Amino acid sequence: MGLFDWLKGSKEAPQTGAAPGMIVLLDGLPQIDAPAAAKALDAIEKLRAPSRIEIENAPVGGKTAEGDEVEGALHGSAEFDSHSIGIVGFDAPAPGPVMEKTVAVSNWTGDARKQLENHYAHLVLMHAGGGASALEKYIALYKLAGVLGGGHLRGVVIEDAWTCAPADLVREFSNPEMLAAFRESIPPILFTGFVRFTTDDGAWFVTKGHHLFDAPDLAMEGNDEQPSEVMDLFMNIFLYVTGQKAKIAPGHTLQIAEEAFLKFSEVAPDNPYRDWLLGAGQTLQLKRISKDEINRKNGA
To answer: What residues have CB less than 8 Å from 55, skipping those under 6 apart?
Structure first.
């Protein structure tokens, strides 16, 4: 089954909004020591106040000691700096459709991919408020994922952004030097998705999750394109828009490198793959143009 075939089975509208979520993949559902987890979170970098983590660990089957049903095998919350994050744990792998949208379409290979695929439990983290920016919200989620996952961590997936990261990369968010680097230069692949769709007519490349950064997602027909070059192109545009607070819109042209000239447009209403190319917010299609076209106003 191709990715398009799988997507045709779900017509649910994409989720929008400014509150990212994350699924933490585990080799088993741990009994989380909340005070120890809060202490570990505090040790990563200086916070304005001590962290507060509250976890109710319930027996497998989703019931409390009193016999009440709960949503998942554990649930709780974490509060640190201005962040408020809800936590729910399940003694089961992440849902198949979520894995299809994240790990299955990712470029991870070898042991990193095996770790992501071979997990047996998961936590759902949902950012419920606070954070000065989308980047800080995601950093908070990554930090908490590493702390709660501990030695059980297999990686994380971000469904809204169609992306994932193996355990070793998640643990980098407990390194103050790496946090400083991430804040200085956003690594898009950790927070947004890059997906190649193969169709009967060729291929398309798209991004997912840019809406959480108030940036448009990007789409480009890729019959004659190299995936690595398109990924670099998309990342450079994302960093340009988010770093410079630049606005791009249909009809705009852009020079992204010495010999790379682009024009933006809406995805055509009659594009047969439109439903799958569109992101949760605005999506712009890219087309390569010649240098002579770069200064045309409202050019074709």
So the answer is: 32, 34, 37, 74, 75, 76, 87
Q: How long a stretch of residues is the chain? A: 300
Span 116-162, pLDDT tens digits: 999 999 999 999 988 779 999 999 999 999 999 999 999 999 999 99
In the chain, the amino acid numbered 90 is F
Q: What is the pTM of this model?
A: 0.86
Assess contact for 115 and 154: CB atoms under 8 A. Answer: yes
Query: Per-residue confidence at 72, pLDDT binned at 50, 70, 90?
Result: low
Residue percentage of the chain with pLDDT more than 70: 87
Angle at 98 between CA 93 and CA 101, to 5 degrees: 140
Q: Would you tell me how many other CB atoms lie within 10 Å of the CB of residue 293?
A: 15
Question: Which DSSP string corresponds to 223-258?
Answer: TT--HHHHHHHHHHHHHHHHHHT----TT-EEEEET
Looking at residue 272, the DSSP 8-state letter turns out to be T
Rounded to the nearest 10 degrees, how much is the dihedral formed by the CA atoms of 296, 261, 188, 250?
20
**Backbone φ and ψ of 128, nearest 5°:** -105, 0
